[in-house]
Amino acid sequence: MSIPSNNACPLCLEAGGMLIVQTPLWRVVRVEDANFPAFYRLIWLGHVAEFSDLSDADALACMRAVTAIERVLRGALRPTKVNLASLGNVVPHLHWHVVARFDWDSHFPNPIWGEPLRALAEPAQARLALGLPALDAQVAQALAGLN
């Protein structure tokens, strides 16, 4: 069950990050965060609050896209872990966070929203095995044709 945009919802009003790809059902953006450069967000286009608001077919389409992003991050970056989260406590609009995590990142093993445990001597982006433009291209390619 999907209702059109909500004029008070930031994910209805704004992209929510740098647009990588958009389909009729969802868009994927890269969140520009210096501490977590491989941070992608899948945003459902219809304004729904919960994953269970989706039909079975839409839920499957959503998870196929989340899984495709995770596979790219794992294959291209070899992270220690990939975090998946769909919280919506602050913005009650269905969206999934897909974040590559590394044992060297500023917060690991804490959540990205938790307390940092260390300062990095060099920018996190410089430590990635692949540059962000190439990573974005791989994510876009993996999502091509999904809907």
Notable characteristics:
alpha+beta; HIT family, subunit A; five-stranded antiparallel β-sheet; 19% strand
Describe the structure.
This protein has helices at 10-13, 56-77, 132-143; strands at 18-22, 26-30, 39-44, 81-85, 95-101. The chain is of the alpha+beta class and 147 residues long. The protein has one domain (10-143): HIT-like (HIT family, subunit A, 2-Layer Sandwich), CATH 3.30.428. The protein has a five-stranded antiparallel β-sheet with strand order 1-2-3-5-4, with helices on one face. Strand 2 and strand 3 form a beta hairpin. It is globular and about 45 Å long.
Short description:
The protein is α+β, with helices and mostly antiparallel strands and 147 residues long. 26% of the residues lie in helices and 19% in strands.
